[in-house]
Amino acid sequence: MRRLGYALLALILFIPLKSVAFSASDIATPDGEIAFGNSWLRAMRGQLNERLDPFCIDLLETWLTRLRNQYPLSNIPLTGLCLESHQFNAFAVPGGIIGVNRGVFSDLASEAEIMAVLSHELAHLSQRHHYRQLKNSEKFSMGTLATLAGLLAAVSTQQEQVAQSLIIGGQAAIKSQALAYSRDFETEADRIGLEALNHTGYDPSAMQRVMNILAKKETKIGQNLIFLRTHPLSLERVSDLESRLRQLIERERFTPVMTDIDFQLFRCVQTEGIEAPFRVTNPDPCTQVQQILSKYRSKNYSQAYEDFKNLPDAAQNSLTGQDLMISIAIKAGHIKRAIEGIEYLSLLFPSWITPVIARIDLAVATNQTKLPKEFRDIATKRPMRLDLWLALNRFAKHTKQQHLLFEARGWNALLHGKIEAAQRQLTQAIEHWPKALERKPLKRLRAAIKIAETA
Ligand SMILES: [Zn+2]
Prior knowledge:
Layout: H1 2-18, H2 30-44, H3 54-68, E1 79-83, E2 90-93, E3 97-101, H4 111-126, H5 129-136, H6 145-157, H7 160-170, H8 183-199, H9 206-221, H10 226-230, H11 235-247, H12 260-270, H13 286-297, H14 301-309, H15 313-316, H16 319-332, H17 335-348, H18 354-365, H19 374-381, H20 386-399, H21 402-415, H22 419-432, H23 440-454
Parallel strand pairs: 1-3
Antiparallel strand pairs: 2-3
Helix pairs in contact: 1-2, 1-6, 1-7, 3-4, 4-8, 4-9, 6-7, 8-11, 12-13, 13-14, 14-16, 16-17, 16-18, 17-18, 18-20, 20-21, 21-22, 21-23, 22-23
The chain binds zinc ion.
Zinc ion is lined by residues 120, 124, 181, 186, 189, 231.
């Protein structure tokens, strides 16, 4: 019964990508990789258990952008996925997709450490390890990109058993190592990641600290961690990194995106409700923050707001502090404070989606019927951000604007790979679209559906 269940799940994972009929040579070029990544994300979206926290996604993409100049990534866009899983895992998918579980923040205690993880993942992408592994491995035959997609699906959703059943059921020759990068690729990703970390102005020894954390986990829980299965640790790998660190000429250090207190606060928010042992820093900032969160969750907004004002100034004024404050202030009716926070964030990070979504939630809270003008601008630039369309959906429902509701549903369906449903929503949106209103948004949705159809 269990086996059948997994087999069915495996089938579900396969279906959307099989119809795409990729072959390994299709990811031989950057454009092929991008197309693969887009299809993969559309097929997987419903199962990823994404954490649609705009702040987390913006931050992750800011970190990735800081690193990207160090890699030959051609025109590949970088897409960050924040995921709900409590397990330590991060993964890369061809086409520039990097996923990070919130569980990593139980262990990673500084921005340099998460950057070490990201720089390693980006190295797998820039060195095209998926493609090279697929091409070189006798275990794979050409034309089994669907298998790669399935394996990546298993890695990202931690369905170890699914991966195993794909391997056992699909191709007898493929052993469980098919999930893992080869030892050479691991060493290469460490080497390139270390250089990138150093050149981006972070403490390169953070990479060694991450490796030590993983080594400890390995002895504690055996080989069950999917991150360790896909990025196998070996004595060679550890000693190689150590010797490289000794020889490294340290570059100038740059200011990280977050101050230390900011990063600690961010960890507190991300690890809310996770019972894993937390690498505590001194003093422990989480108790207060998680109390504020719990009041917020139980809709005790005014008390959450009062408690927030009792945090140290440095915490309140941090990015995480501002993001937290905006959400609480909107709900507690402190509109002026919320607007100040939104303007602060959008001034610091003009490309961030967090402040735009906050403006939409503010419009909902204050019963505005006019869509914030910032929305169209950012939706044109970043239409693949699911959180943006969910915000439009909230706004459309609250203001009872059918045309916007159909538009939001259309994008939501499209980003989940439901192309026919997206087309139906588009037809409805066209029908309900007010005559006086600009029709560019409809054209954009139609064009995006067309691209997905022909991918
Ligand atoms: Zn690796």
